[in-house]
Amino acid sequence: MSHDPEDEGGDAPCFAHHLVGGHPVAPETARDVARFRKGERARLLEARKLSTPDRDAALAGLRVGLEKRIRITKGVRIAAYWPIRSEPDLRGWMKAVHSAGAQILLPVVAGKSAPLEFHHWSPGCRMTRGVWNIPVPADGAPDRPDIVISPLLGVDHAFYRLGNGGGYYDRTLAALDPRPHVIGVGLAGCMLPTIYPMPWDIPMDEIILSDGTMRQRAGDRA
Question: Is the residue at 112 inside a domain?
């Protein structure tokens, strides 16, 4: 016999069972979207395993895009990332823009459900192992970035990001005021028609892909 919610006599007085991450979302919808994203993550992670020559070419393409889109001024605070799970390795670019006068920050997980902190990094600074053994600055002070470079596993045509699934970037961007300019960077082939964005998802301001694709969200034209 099938289950019919109409037989249950209406909703309970408390509607907390309909909240996901503090947002009203039907549990069935949240479940279906989570399954879709899990499958896409697995597919895109496999596609991101490039040969060394292909990876070098992809990184060169991303660096050209970043140089075109970001004007380095003395003291500008740029949050980048330490690469994990075959993410594009931008550490060479980070060193170059640091030498040009930019301040580089790296994300640090402060708590399981807390927004990220961004701590100052410089070439050769002392590093320690943070959550998931990701290296983070051992002594860098937290700061607020002007620009955030966010690694894309996938991204849809509305600029919503598919990441590793922890939700840290979305929580962080929602908490930052004023919000920094957010640039998603990823490999060619990571575009999706949609990730079926949830209420807590926050779109990127622009994206740069390794094949030279550079797109900006409406209202964010430079």
Answer: yes
In a domain, 1, yes or no: no
Q: Which two tokens stand for residue 155?
A: 């991204």
**Using one digit for the tens of pLDDT, what is the confidence trace for 45-87?**
999 999 999 999 999 999 999 999 999 999 999 999 999 989 9
pTM of the model: 0.85
How far is the C-alpha of 147 from the C-alpha of 64, rounded, in Å? 17
The residues, ordered by sequence, that sit 6+ positions from 84 with a Cβ below 8 Å of its Cβ are: 132, 134
Q: Which of 172, 170, 184, 181 is nearest to 214 (CA)?
A: 184
How many domains are contained in the chain?
1
Kindly report whether the peptide bond that precedes residue 115 is cis, defined as omega within 30 degrees of 0. Answer: no
Which tokens is 75 given?
């003291």
Quick one: 160 exposed, middle or buried, by C-beta within 10 A (0-12, 13-18, 19+)?
Answer: buried
Q: Specify if 143 maps to a domain.
A: yes
Full residue range of the structural domain in which residue 40 is found: 26-216
Residue whose pair of structure tokens reads 């028609």 in the numeric block: 193
Residue 83 sits in a domain of what CATH number? 3.40.50.10420
Residue 154 CA to residue 148 CA, distance in Å, equals 17
Would the CA dihedral through 168, 170, 174, 177 be positive or negative? positive
CB of 209 closer than 8 Å to CB of 190: yes
pLDDT category at 219 given cuts 50, 70, 90 is low
CA distance 212 to 102: 24
Q: Which residue in 84, 92, 77, 184 sits closest to 129, CA to CA?
A: 84
